[in-house]
Each structure stands twice: as C-alpha cells, then as structure tokens.
Amino acid sequence: MQSLTRLFPHTAVSMMLGGVILFGAAPAADAYEGGRDRTERAAELRERRAEARMGDRADLSLRGKHVAFLVGEGFHDAETYIPMAYLMNRGARVTVVGVEPAEVTSYNSDITIHVRRSVSDVNPDRFDALVIPGGESPDWLRQHSEVVSFAGDFFNTGKPVAAICHGPQVLITAGVLDGREATCFATVADELREAGATFEDEPVVRDGNLITSRVPDDIPAFSKEIKNALLE
C-alpha cells in the first residue's frame, strides 16, 4: 500500500476488495506521463474527486456485472486501476486474468497487481465484458497462444471488449479487427491498419462490441463507454 500512496499522493484509497485497490479519484500526474503542471493537475484532481464521490453514492447501476481485466507484466498502472475503480465504484465485480496467477508489476511505476485466474481456467461465459489495459503488457500477453485464443473467443461472443493504448495489440494478434473502426496509441496505428481496421484518432471509438481509446487522458471517456456498453 505504501507504493500506491506514494505514487498516488492526491488519491484517497477507499477500499480494497479481492486484492484490487479501489480509488475514489484519479491518480496524480506521476501515474500518467509526469509532464503536466502540478497546479493545473491538482485543480483537475479536486474536480474529479468530487465527481467520483457523487458517483459512488448515487450510481450502482453495474451491480451484478462481472468484468475481466486482461493484465500481464508491464501493465500501465493508470490504464488498469482507474477504469477498474470506475466500474467497481458502480457495483461491478472485477477479476484480473492473465497467463497464470501471479503478482505482476507496472512498467511505469513500482505498483503491482495480482493476476487471480489463468485464462486457461476461465470461460468468456463467466464475464459480461473484457478490458485490456495498455503499457508493455499487451505485447507480452500476445506471445501466449492461450491468451490470444481467450481474447478472440471473448470477442466473438459479441460481448463488450475494451482496449486502450497498446491494448488492441492482443486483438490484432487474435485476428478479430478486420473491417472494424478503432483507435490506439499512435505507434500502434500502422499495425492496426495492417490488421484491416480503420484507425480513428479520437478519444474513444465504439464499433459494435469493440471499444478502444488512445492514451491515459482518454480514460474518463473510455470508462464511461464501457459502462454504457454494459448497460445495453
């Protein structure tokens, strides 16, 4: 917990459930790219904290929903924990899945997360949505055939699959993006096009059950679109 409070000094840790940290607000600038003015960032965080507290009390619309987060070594801390907190604060249950049960570390901080279940031991039928955060994790995950099969099978159920930043790399390898509209981190755009997708430089792109975003600044729009899809 010390590493979390050090890296997220402006964030109130409101709850821990099943090894998942549930935040009341967004992380400090360090957890993003670290280059923004701290005064500007502090004002933004105060506003987002107030919004999050209101949401916690008023919105449990995702109660009964079960969301899988596909995570591996080198995950992006904010792209994982903020959407997770957003969904859990609204009543959703979250399970972190990956290659095998293990503690893995973020590439951009010393924050860790515990992978609870191997993708080989779970079925897409157990979940209502799949979220694939970015960082170095997606490129590592797609080297494992069982992960690629799980992601492809999940996508083909028609249930929401959301990927941010480098997250679409897993879906590219799964071969499910041909003919789709999507977005991603800029350096992945050519790979997205080669997979047959149309790249859209927008904060969030929704194409059927596919939800994609580009960078940490898009996390609010990304999280809300996941919620919208779960409520349909």
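(ticket continues) Second input and output from the same batch:
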Amino acid sequence: MSDINNDVHKPGMLGGRLCLDFANTVSWHDSSEKSQELLTSYEKLVNWSLHADILNKQQSLSLLKKAENHPSQATEVLQQAIKLRESIYRIFSLASNNETPASEDLSILNEAIGKAYAMMQIVPGDHKFSLEFLNGEERLDGMLPPIVQSAIDILTSEKELSRVKKCEGYPCGWLFLDTSRNRSRRWCSMADCGNRAKAKRFYHNKK
C-alpha cells in the first residue's frame, strides 16, 4: 500500500485561502515552458490535501489504500481535481483584473458545487448549526468539497474578491488574498518573487 510521503515537495501555503493555495499547485503557472505540475499522481493530491489540513493522516492513508484497490477511479479523480483547479485559477485570475470569467469555467465550478453539496449536511452544535462534509475518508474525491466551498466563500464576498491578486513576478502567476492594510502586496512571497524583482531592478539600474 502507498504511504504518506513526508519528503514530497510541499509548496508554501501563500494564497491565504484554501482554493487559492489549490490553484497554486503549479509553479510558474503563466509559462507553458517552465510550468511545473505538483499534482502528478493521486498520491500527490492526497499528500497535498494532508499538508493543507483538508485530510488528517488516518483519512489520507485510508484514501491511498482505496486508490490502490481502484486505480482507474483514482486517476479519474485526479483528472477531475486538475480540471477544477484550472477553472478556479482562470476564474480568480480574471476576477483579480476585474474581468468576467468564462462561462465554461463557471460551469465546471458549478458542476463541482453540485457534487460537493451532495456530500454535506447540517449538524447541530452549541447554539448554532454548522455545515460539515461527510465521509471524507471514504470517497476518493473527498478532498474536493472544502476547496469548492472556499471558492464559493470568496466569490460571494465582495470584500474578499476585491482582495484577490496575482503575483506580479512573471511568469509565477500564483494567486493570493491581499490582507495588507493598504492593499500593497504585489508578490506571492517577498523572499521569492519579491527578491527576484529587486535584484532585476538593481541590475538594470547599474546598467
């Protein structure tokens, strides 16, 4: 049985919201030549979901065992996850520039919403009710509903949607929620794309 690989490359969770971090599971997203896919297998999808706190270790191991017994279904879920990720990426990339997303991408997300809501139920709690996802460790696509819910939360919040930005460090393309007081954040990370931009400016100034 496959196991959780603690040595797998784990990207920094820099997006500020789950769906944006999921969209960032491709490095150099805006370059067809340099882009690097993180979700190259169902196991990598499960590993990322563990890293993102969607799944716990027990749920992750259970899904990997199920995937081993149903490899074709696991491959189908991986393809479904990547299709969803790309639609989320395009939707928020356009939204960050005050542009309207393509109807095809909204259809992909709406289809995912239908599947996600079929896996939810209202649960009573202390003086309130909560919406919980069911059987995350029993369904191979059990990690997707929380990602879909995260996308819904941003898209239906004018305040949060207005704070979605794309890293200016071309061809990075990573998305993030700008929570800075004056909305001045420009990079996915100052230590990464921000430093590269500073070095580039310094080189041109010296030239």
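Agent notes: The first strand starts at residue 26 and ends at 27. Helices lie at 18-23, 42-51, 57-69, 71-95, 103-117, 144-155, 158-161, 190-206. Closing as not reproducible unless the customer responds.
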